[in-house]
Amino acid sequence: MNREITVALVGNPNSGKTTIFNNLTGNRQHVGNYPGVTVEKKFGEVTANDTKIHVVDLPGTYSLTALSVDEQIARKFIIDEQPDVVVDIIDYSNLERNLYLTTQLIELGAPLVLVFNMSDVAEARGIEYDLVGLGENLGAPILPTVGHKGQGTKDIIKAILMVADGEIDPVRPGIQYGREIEKETARLQSLLTEGGLVPDKYNSRWMALKLLENDQEILDELDSSEIRKEIENISRHLNDVHGVNPEIAIADHRYGFISGVCRKTARSTPDTRLTRSDRIDRILTDGRFGLPIFLVLMYLVFHFTFTLGGLPMEWIESFFGWSGEVVTGWWTEGSDSALKSLLVDGIIGGVGGVIVFLPNIMLLFLAISILEDSGYMPRAAFVMDRLMQKFGLQGRSFMPMLIGFGCSIPAIMATRTLDNRRDRLVTMLVLPLMSCGARFPIYALIIPAFFPMKMRGIMLFSIYLFGIILAFVSAKLLRISLLQRTATSLVMELPSYRLPTFNSIITNMWEKSWLYVRKAGTIILGISIVMWAMTSYPKNPEITAGDPGAIQAEYLAYSIAGRVGHAIEPVIKPMGFDWRIGTAMIGAFAAKEVFVAQMGIIFSVGEADEVSEALREKLQRNYSPLVGLCMMLFMLISAPCMATIAVTKQESGLWKWALLQLGGLTLMAYVVTTTVYQVGSLLGMGL
Amino acid sequence: MVETGRRVRLVGIDAGRRLEARLADMGLVPGVEIDVINNTYHGPFIVAVKGSRIVLGRGMALKIDVE
Question: Which of residues 34-63 of B touch A (CB under 8 A)?
């Protein structure tokens, strides 16, 4: 019998849900968007017993109220899509808090399978429950698993099928909320039913409870202002009775239910006041050591990324260089084929320039994955929080910014963890100032061309540091003007530290790197072809003889790109730039890496990559170190590549923000670079 | 200020309706037992509630009433 069922995965953040999802679906996953963190529609499939199981990984949430977008998404999916089974991933070592979400699923009436994950940690701590009894009390089968070791996956699938088939159909418990709340709920229920206000997808008790809980989404959907007023009265009354708002009393009763059930079925629950994680935290989050430790870790991450990445980079460069020669060899020596040029200069040159950076980027993401999986990230966010608050950002903005050093695109998507919209916007807008991987070839070209060996490390570090400083300053400016502060309070769960597993780190790293690769394959490939055309055509028909290098330069001046370069020269002159740099800047708008390729074409060196000696010499001859610095500054600050702007629009929902990002950054780049050049020249640092 | 290492009972939180509800979802309901894991002036305010560790910003910490 061939059939298909849908299964939704829910659970608290840090419960190991993503690992279980990966265990279930393996390679058969599709990601709807870029996963900075778990994204709304991450789905995959697994087949067992002739059944195709569609698994949807819903966002990690603590509850199913409407307090955050993630919760709304999770809830909406369960109610609207009515999955055949809902699998709740629970951290067994942290049972009571995890079961809070479970109580809400029970009340929704979802067919449940409970996965008690991290059972190795629970066992190590001496935690043990009668899982059969507990399952009966909760109305769902319980399966202990160790997700990060891949244990228990088959059991989960078996349970899913049995629940879907109706072979397991336990009695659902009813959760009681005390006399007063029950009375008012029943009353509200009849009011709603009589008024025909209960949509089919809800049951009336659930809806009534949610309304009493002040659930904004359900309240907004309610089509009756009289009942809304009645709810306010009821709330006031219940507040008088309990001393707290109804939703707090309701939460209290849910936890009471959980305590009762756990007490009945606990076999062993040691009282660990101070765990190993707590002891580690004493050091890592200490007021005096926390920040320095964090800075050291960050330095190690960057050192790791830049040094280890060096060797693979060279291999890739050689590979692309070799490919270029091979392809060139397909035509007779000195032939002027357009196709050859397209392949060698356009495609291999353009795309090659991007892929070269893949090792660096992957290493950065690897380091981030390790930090994430070990549980350190919330601590880092906490340590940074105080400093970042001074500039109008929050500690949690830190993670997207760190990712931004690899590529802005996954970084902007990672801002989804910020639930305050203004915080999120400020972070998104200044993110591109975290110098992304694409800008690295520019620095790698210019710094050695103009600065002596001793100064190179410092120059590179200074550029990155300057970007960070500018980001903070811009954030502050945005806060003062357009995006004023709304109050946010820092509340974060600190998961236990744990040793990351090889599998989870690699999967995590690959998810983040994938978009960079995809960008290379699509956008940059496309842009490279366009730029190649713009720099190659139209060809001045009058020039035929002469040194091939000079001919190329002449063609360039005549081409579209060249003409645009000439046209903008007056504008960029205050920065010390000439039309040739102008041409490269235009290409760089599409993708930053193109800047280097373009400079190479302009100075008529065959296929330029950033270690090309000849190009460096030409730069040295034509420009001063001051101009070199200005080029880097402008490329650092100015508008990010088109893809980034597009993602900003997508994530913020409005073109207004994307354009502000584009305009603001370009303007800032112009102002800063002009200032630096003019002041520098005045101080005699010119030629 | 409650010292590190003490076990106290939460009396109430004065933080606006939405934030109170969010904290309640995470286990911080009136009457619940909290272990103060860390509460030094320049450090974070970390509490253990219902078995998990929650860190609260300083502004938040001041709004929590315990006994």
Answer: 35, 37-38, 40-44, 46, 48-57, 59-60
A155-179 pLDDT, tens digit per residue, is 999 999 999 988 888 888 989 998 9
CB neighbour list of residue A522: distance below 8 Å, 6 or more residues apart: none
Cis peptide bond upstream of A541, omega within 30: no
State whether B37 and A288 contact (CB < 8 Å).
no
Q: Nearest residue on chain B to A283, judged by CA atoms?
A: B43
Buried-exposed string A486-514: b where 16+ CB fall within 10 A, e elsewhere: eebbbbbbbbbbbebeeebbebbbebbbe
| Between A435 and A418, residue with greater pLDDT | A435
Q: Please answer yes or no on whether A67 and B22 come within 8 Å at the CB atom.
A: yes
Instruction: State mean pLDDT over A417-444.
Output: 84
| A97:B26 CB<8 A | yes
Residues A291-307 pLDDT 10s = 788 888 888 887 777 77
Q: CA A286, CA A296: separation in Å to the nearest integer?
A: 15
pLDDT beyond 80 at A573: yes
d(CA A445, CA A231): 67
Q: What digits encode the pLDDT tens for the residues A202-238?
A: 888 999 999 999 998 888 888 888 888 999 999 999 9
- Which domains occur in chain B, in start order? 7-66 (2.30.30.90)
- Least CB–CB distance from A489: residue in B7, B42, B59: B59
Do B56 and A382 count as a contact with CB atoms less than 8 A apart?
Answer: no
Domains detected in chain A:
3-165 (3.40.50.300), 179-245 (1.10.287.1770), 293-338+357-484+503-513 (no CATH), 520-682 (no CATH)
Q: In this structure, are residues A175 and A254 in contact, taking their beta carbons and an 8 Å threshold?
A: yes
